[in-house]
Specification:
The complex is a heterodimer of chains A (313) and B (308). Chain A is mainly alpha-helical and 313 residues long. The radius of gyration of chain A is 24 Å and the shape is globular. Chain A starts with a helix and ends in a 6-residue tail after the last helix. Chain B is mostly helical and 308 residues long. A two-stranded antiparallel ribbon of chain B has the order 1-2. In chain B, α6 packs across α7. Chain B is elongated. The chains are: A mainly alpha (313), B mainly alpha (308). At the A-B interface, α1, α6, α7, α8 and α12 of A face α1, α5, α6, α9 and α11 of B.
Chain lengths: 313, 308
Amino acid sequence: MFGYILRRLVATIPVMGVVAVLVFLMLRLTPTDPAAIIAGDNANSEQVAEIRKRLGLDQPIHTQFVIWANKTLHGDFGESFFFKKQVAELIGDRLEPTLSLAVMTITLAVLIAVPLGVLAAYRHGGWLDRIVMGFSVLGFSVPVFVIGYALIYVFAIELAWLPVQGYQRISLGIGGWLQRLILPAVTLSVIYVALIARITRTSVLEVMNEDYIRTARAKGQTERKVLVRHALANAAVPIVTVVGLGVALLIGGVVVTESVYTIPGLGRLTVDAVLARDYPTIQAVILLFSLSYVLINLVVDLTYTFFDPRIRY
Amino acid sequence: MTIEAIPAAAEAPPQAHRPSTLRGVLRNPSVLIGAVIVAFLAVIGALAPMLGTIDPAEINPVFRNKKPGVERSIRDADGSERRFVHRFGTDTLGRDVYSRVVYGARVSLTIGVTVAVLSVGIGLLIGLVTGYIRWIDGIIMRFMDGLMAIPAILLAMGLVSLSRAGLLAVVIAIVVPEVPRVVRLVRSIVLSIREEPYVEAAITLGTPTPTLLVRHVLPNTIAPLLVQGTFTCASAILIEAVLSFLGIGIPPETPTWGNIMAEGRSLFRIYPHNIFYPGVFLACAVLAINMLGDGLRDTLDPRFAKRM
């Protein structure tokens, strides 16, 4: 097991290496001169040259990459052009809202989608099945921000049950934090629920015809236990896989949802950085999101042994 | 309508013998409904100037932020006056939302189709090469893995930030994240096809590689790529809308469903129609294309249909 984890960790290095090269080249491919941006409009050419030297931009490109990669590995993402702060610090400030939103969305989505998928498979061809399948196609098609604004309109403006927008730090009280997080999390979970419910339905449907399901029923097991203990347990691996792969969708959704609900998280930071052409921040955010995506999927792979003891590493 | 159509499509039995693929495809209700809606939206986009629209970029300071149904008189080119109803209201600059949504169909659908064609074309080319020429395979696939590790919207955002926002930049930014998915698909098909006896026979007979690829491998990729292309088209329309909505996509002079909604963001609480109408059109378009894709997959690609 340990050897396997190590091997898998090592295998992520080339992937992240390619990501790093891509992200690095992105900055160098820009038509604009980062030194000129940092120097500002009133700088003379000597000042620009000075900054260029300080940033190491006068070095050949492969040397620049080595310097940049070395810095990045040590957590130094450089200074933001726009916010005039260390990017690492900037990201640290924005981490909490995004993590809160992501964790809450995943929890919500799994709690809603898995039972829905199981029931849809159980009542295969029935009205619930049709509704779940219809919802899953719909969930893929309606953009996150349309869902977001529709929910704001209904629950925050018309019914006035929840605050419209904004975020409150968890340290200021769980109530306010939760209140402001419910709508964004529901918004973001729609596409995720669609994805997970669909795969749950398919994989449960596949195992429902297996002999052990018939055996379980024959020995008088209750239907609920048949579904959970026998069907769902055996259908778990594809479901966790999709939960992991869906993180890519989730990250895309975070960017949009945070903009709709004006949550000061990493997604909002990404949008601001792109609008301001703040390349060090863009690079850092893309690297960070990609790394978390890769690592989450690595963790998902490792949970396979838990869900299916036949899989051994 | 949708609820009726989807399970029926999902349960369509995988056909071992398909005497007429086209007829099978057209008999699928999901394909039919999807195709009709897409065709309808395409016609709307194509005939935009004839559908009672006015110039979608025309700014009218007097008629700003009007709710749907407001009337005003406009002067035609020949000097005669006529009454014009803002069916979907006007936006913060007094532009007619109905006209913008109708013209937006053009841009949004064009982007979807362009991205689908480009990413399938490029992906097919790279996929065929990597699947067939072994020594390139490792290098290109590592590169593709890296590209796929970056979430699509994020990669598109990063790419858009590299140049001035415009149609071409947006199309390229959406194509790049889609290509690796096509490459993987094509590569996996090529890898399984090259083990087939008829391909081995062709190799034994001395068929040159290009001929082999075109005559034996290529035909096998058509059906899965058609399905993939359809889904790519839907996701491209969505990503374009997201980019434009965030204000980093196509500039508002060219109306797309995404940037009409972006314009409506600031005053959403008072005038939700700016987001509502384009949102409905966008959702319908993507839904229809997804249904088309689902249906195509069920009829053309039974192996894949079983998996999903």
